[in-house]
Amino acid sequence: MVYDVIIIGAGPAGMTAALYALRAGRRVLLLEELIYGGQVANTPEVENIPSISRIDGVEFSMNLYNQIVELGAEFTFEGAESVEDKGDTKVVVSNAGQRYEGKTLIIANGAKRRKMEVEGEERFSGRGVSYCATCDGAFFKGQETAVVGGGNTALEDAIYLSALSSRVHLIHRRDTFRGSQILVDRVLALPNVEIHYDCIPQAVIGEDAVTGLSIKNVKTGAIQTLPVSGIFVAVGTVPDNRRFLPLVELDEAGYILAGEDCLTKTPGIFVAGDTRKKHLRQIVTASADGAVAATMAIQHIG
Q1: One of 88, 135, 175, 261 is an active-site residue; which one?
Q2: Domain CATH number, residue 29
Q3: I need a labelling partner for 223 at 20 to 30 A (CA). Which of 95, 107, 110, 166 fits?
Q4: Nearest of 66, 107, 92 to residue 1 by alpha carbon
């Protein structure tokens, strides 16, 4: 079977691309390694989508998923191991050993959470160190927790955890936040959130479980240990695109290069969402990419 469009990734970019391709009467297959919705599925509240003042990330993801399934989208919960260019068709080899063939391909695999790269992080990953506050925050109810980061995700995590934790330590390497001012104002108003400006993590401390996080002030050199049992990492994202070489070109950070038409260096292969080199990575820009990529893919098919 040859699909019209194969989409790698079922976040906002991938599912919007599916929506546009399906509405054009095309047969679409989406491959998703983890959970549909991508990073937004782990977001407690989404507030920056036009006409929607506030929506739960899971609800947003389910709405989009149900919408494209009703239109006939086909899903397989497998990851993409590699991609082959056969000229008129593209072949995606999954991590389950399956081969899927399509006339066009849209890469919308998003990006993964960046790690702190400090001592103890790997050892306690999943056992006190987490990259998803909404997934694991409830395990630390009534306890002290830490959030590492200074962007919107870190601020949202601190807000979410403040309702669960006895105290939340927010560690930021600068003296001002990079996130939206509305989120900054909410965090500053929370009585149980303590902000540690100009600080970076040094080591995760513990024996059988996490008992603390060592941090260093980058201006004074002072080191202190925070008595936390849960550490939530929100220090940005990194792409995972080397498996698509040499069919795409990457920038120095590993993001796929493409213009506003979302076309990569290989005809018939497009890219959408956070995995593409761009200035702004938000749900609305991911969805916009998905719409453009699907439209261009349909034009490519003819």
Answers
A1: 135
A2: 3.50.50.60
A3: 166
A4: 92
